[in-house]
Amino acid sequence: MVRIPSSAVVLVTAAVLSGCAANPIATSASAPANTPGQAVRAAPSDRFYASLQAMCGKAFAGRVVIDTPAAPEDPTWQGGRAFAGKPLLMHVRGCGEDQLRIPFHVGEDRSRTWVITRFRNASGENRLRLKHDHRHQDGSADAWTMYGGDSIDSGTDLRQQFPVDQFSTALSAKLGRSPATATNMWVMELKPGVTFSYEISRLQGREKLRVDFDLTRPVTPPPAPWGDEG
């Protein structure tokens, strides 16, 4: 039997370890919680995100398909009345690896942008965050802005739900908006190549609004949203 000197074993072991260090295997444990860009791409929420990202640069026309009348005691619920008779357009404009910015234009009003961010929660689970960035025509932030919530779970490849978060509830109370906003639920639903849907509902009073965008016919992209013309 040929004996291998112990010094050679040490050298071989060191070389192997060195090779591992040069080509580390990425694991979910290596990503810190709440850090965009580290989520595992195989999750349904990531596939949903990738489907939206694939539409980068394109714009689509929409129409209101559900508009449940507001409860008389809730004057803050505008529903489809705010969109009546106006062209509705979504534009997948900002297309980062971990954040999408999708302006939602209502006629000449370019104040609204949906901001969708990929992240990992404290438990290391893949999630999406939906925020509504509202701006004035001069680009300054509206008082009622950056409200939204985190996806309720990893969702599916085609549907994500976002219950209202604590920040939004506190902001609503600060601005004196209806307590019903504390039950807001936003839903985004995708039928690839067919429709994209944006929906908002409230459990109190069952108010509901849904806008469907036709993905079969891209339209000319609109001007940049207010505050993002650069």
Keywords:
single chain; 230 residues; alpha+beta; 11-stranded antiparallel beta sheet; 3 helices; 33% strand; disordered N terminus
Question: What's the helix and strand layout?
Answer:
Layout: H1 6-22, H2 44-53, E1 59-67, E2 88-91, E3 94-95, E4 99-106, E5 109-120, E6 126-134, E7 147-150, E8 159-163, H3 166-174, E9 184-191, E10 195-202, E11 208-214
Antiparallel strand pairs: 1-2, 1-11, 2-4, 3-4, 4-5, 5-6, 6-7, 8-9, 9-10, 10-11
Structure description:
The protein is an alpha+beta fold. It has 3 helices and 11 strands; from the N terminus they run ααββββββββαβββ. 16% of the residues lie in helices and 33% in strands. Strands 1, 2, 3, 4, 5, 6, 7, 8, 9, 10 and 11 form an 11-stranded antiparallel beta sheet that branches. Strand 3 and strand 4 (99-106) form a beta hairpin. The termini are far apart. Mean pLDDT is 82; it is low at 1-35.
